[in-house]
Amino acid sequence: MTVKELVNLLNVQDVAPFKFCDYKHDGEFAKFVYISDGEYKDLIEVFDQRPDYINKYDMLDEYIIDYMNLKGQSYGNDNIEIRFADVTVDELFILIKNISDVDRRKIIFKIVRNSCCLLNEDETKYAFAIFTILHEIGHNIYFSKSNKNVLEYCLWESNFRKKFKNGVGMYSEIPSEEWADEYASKNLDKNLDKVREYLSILVK
Ligand SMILES: [Zn+2]
After folding, report:
1. Ligand 1 center to residue 97 CA distance, Å?
2. Ion ligand 1 — residues with CB under 5 Å?
3. Dihedral pair phi/psi, residue 118, rounded to 5°
4. Is the pTM higher than 0.85?
5. pLDDT value for 20
6. CA of 190 to the centre of ligand 1 (A)
7. Which of 101, 134, 168, 201 is geometrically suited to a Cys-Cys bond with 184, CB 3.0 to 4.6 A?
8. What is the DSSP string of 114-162?
């Protein structure tokens, strides 16, 4: 089964804008996207070069208005999507097993094991795929709940991600990651039931 088919089986295809693409980037098999890579880089670069703001994060509104005036465009939520590698559930399991951040990989395995009772190898693979799908949906919900526009959210998020990149804390401690993990953990077993039901029909 492909991940795309699994999304349909779970009936979450309309919960968030899923998009399935060829797997290209190392490690990037699932991603909540709300701003293009180019815009992200640009925004952070311009932001980092603003020495005039003593506490930049208290002045996000001013900065964002300046930035939008500079760019002469407005930013909506049109770019939001959950980008997934168009792979099978089996292939996704291999990608997860090969995540280079060892701490992150360990935490994913721990969450999946603690969130449901896995009966066999097949179910295990589905559980990891479902965790990944729910985790990305969690990112989408977290973004909506933040009531921030994409630029505000981007700068706010980048602050946490920068700390992680500089060696402070773990990936799973980034607030949006923690929230998405919790959301996936809470909803894993009941979604796995849908797969269990599907698999039992196949056996009959
Ligand atoms: Zn995430």
Report:
1. 16
2. 177, 180
3. -95, 130
4. yes
5. 95
6. 21
7. 134
8. HHS---SHHHHHHHHHHHHHHHHHHHHHHHHHHT--HHHHHHHHHHHHH
